Every structure is written in C-alpha cells, then in structure tokens.
Amino acid sequence: MMQGTDSPRRKLISAALAVRPEEVVETTLGLWSRFAPELTAVVGAGGFMSLYSRSVKISGGRYSWLLSELSKPTYGDGLSELRACLGHQTPAQAHLASEDLLNVFFDLLASLIGESLTGQILDSAWSPPAPEMSLRNLQNE
Fold it and tell me: What is the pTM (predicted TM-score) of this model?
C-alpha cells in the first residue's frame, strides 16, 4: 500500500534531502549508500536490485530522463549511474526525482516486508543526527 504524502517515512525522506539542498546529488547518494547494505542483508543483492529497478521504472514515468539513463542498473554500478544521472539535472530536478525514487522504493519495500520492518531499516541505516528526524518520532506527530 502506497503511503500518503504526509506519512512519517515520506517526511523523513524529505527532511533528509532538505538538509543540504545545494548538494542534493551527494545527499541522495549518501542516503542510498547508507541503507543499501542494511537492506541487502535482509533481501539479498538480487532483491535490492529488483526493487531498485522497479522503482526506476515507476519514477521514470514521471521523470523520463531517469528511465533513459538508468535503464539497466546493476548492484555494482547502480549508485555511480545514479550520481551521473542526477548530476546532469538542475538541483531542483534532481531533488524532486531523488525524493520520488526513494519514496517509490520504500513504498515497494513496505508492501513486501511491512511498514514496521521498513521503518526499522531506515532508522538503523540513517541514524539521524537529531531525534526529531527519527521515523519513530515522526510517527508520533
């Protein structure tokens, strides 16, 4: 089930990307690289790439340049391809697409493993610097 725009998870993703808007590409890659190992431990590299590829296809419907540049991502080079793809866009375009891609990815993940486990993975991987950016704290708002 897809979450609404005001869900705690979406708020967390939005807040994480807004920390350094002028460095959206690096922030995005940092977020992906922090949760990829956590998630790969749960679903395996093939599972991760299946979710990532499906997310690219869905987000590519809204950001066609994502689909054309990330048509066949692989686990080894997926993040470097994403870096190059986002780097060709304006910061505003890169921000919108990054947020969409992350939201789609985690919506798909939550539909497979549940919202609770997805939230645990995010909290564990992103270890927010401020308590208010914790998914658990955002759920209580």
Answer: 0.82
